[in-house]
Amino acid sequence: MSISAIVFWVIAAVILGSAISVVTAQNLVHAAFFMVLTFFGVSGLYVLLEADFLAVVQILIYVGAIAVLMVFGVMLTQKKDMAQTNASSSHKWLAGGIVTLLMVVLAYAVTRTPWQIIDKAAPLSTVGPIGDLLLNQFVIPFEAVGILLLVAVLGAIILTKGERNLP
Amino acid sequence: MIITLNHYLLLAAMLFCIGLYAALAKQNAISILMGIELMLNACIINLVAFNRFMDPSMLVGQVFGVFVIALAAAEVVVGLALVLTVYRDLLSVNIEDFNWLKW
Q1: Per-residue pLDDT band at A167 (split at 50, 70, 90)
Q2: Which class for A99: exposed (0-12), middle (13-18), buried (19 or more C-beta within 10 A)?
Q3: Between the N and C ends of chain B, which has fewer C-beta atoms within 10 Å?
Q4: Do A24 and B22 meet the contact criterion of CB atoms below 8 Å apart?
Q5: What span, in angstroms and rounded, lies between the C-alpha atoms of B101 and B103?
Q6: Quick one: which H or E segment has residue A3?
Q7: Which residues contact A126 (CB under 8 A, 6 or more apart)?
Q8: CA gap A136, A150 in Å, rounded
Q9: What are phi and psi of A88, to 5 degrees?
Q10: B-interface mutation test, from A45, A125, A154, most B Cβ less than 10 A away
Q11: How far, in Å, are A108, A129, B6, B76 from residue B9 at the CA level?
Q12: What is the distance between the alpha carbons of residues A54 and A61, in angstroms, rounded to a whole number?
């Protein structure tokens, strides 16, 4: 067993264990912190897949921004004790059945498809090629994502402040 | 033992299913947002793994990963704004109390 295989299994255990803890933790703040651990694990997976830029972006945006936003959301909406804030709803068995069925179908599809593997080395640094692709081939989607982020920020401000309170 | 594309795809499928369970079966609206984040992470793992194993010289999969991360940021901003707005009126984030659109 090579080093990268051992690292893969450790990271997979961290990701799956902490993702299951996100679902099973009774305290919503604990669930948010387990989600941070999941994000770190996914970032390690990107390093293993030789996507160094995406690994750093994952930590910056998911751990640095999204997880902090989630914790803020929890803190702003829970006044009483946090003990039972992550409860399941009444139809959790139906949801479990749907999810199990989906997992079986996905596992069947993944293992039965003959993937066309190309065994080549990845580029040493991915930052330059990604910037090149973003500003040449994918410049229209890049600008569209910029507009989408602007619209999302404006929408969040209008939703939370109310249309009438805006200057 | 060599780690192949199938390992990454199965790991991403499991992460997606856990996120889907959180999105379907949780009462708290913020738990549902967390489940959606887990599902988006599984999608990005798929994109990066396909990029690494099927066309390593072009980085198209990673560029789409960057796009998905930007979409996730936009989604969580609007989602939390909606949750906070509803919380101000209902004083609850339990989705079983959200019944304005039922008749």
Answers
A1: low
A2: buried
A3: C
A4: no
A5: 7
A6: helix A3-24
A7: A50, A51, A52, A53, A54, B59, B62
A8: 22
A9: -90, 155
A10: A45
A11: 11, 25, 5, 25
A12: 10
**Helix, strand or coil, per DSSP, at residue A68:** helix
> Which of B4, B74, B87 is opposite residue A148, by nearest beta carbon?
B74
ipTM: 0.90
Tokens of A145: 């994502």
- B74/A5 Cβ within 8 A: no
Round to whole Å and give the CA distance between B55 and B49.
Answer: 10
Return the sign of the alpha-carbon dihedral for residues A89, A91, A92, A96. Answer: negative
Q: Which residues of A50-84 are buried (b: 16+ CB within 10 A; e: fewer)?
A: bbbbbbebbbebbbeebbebbbebbeebbeeeeee
Helix, coil or strand: residue B26: strand
Q: What is the pLDDT of residues B43-85, one digit of tens each?
A: 999 999 999 998 888 889 999 999 999 999 999 999 999 998 8
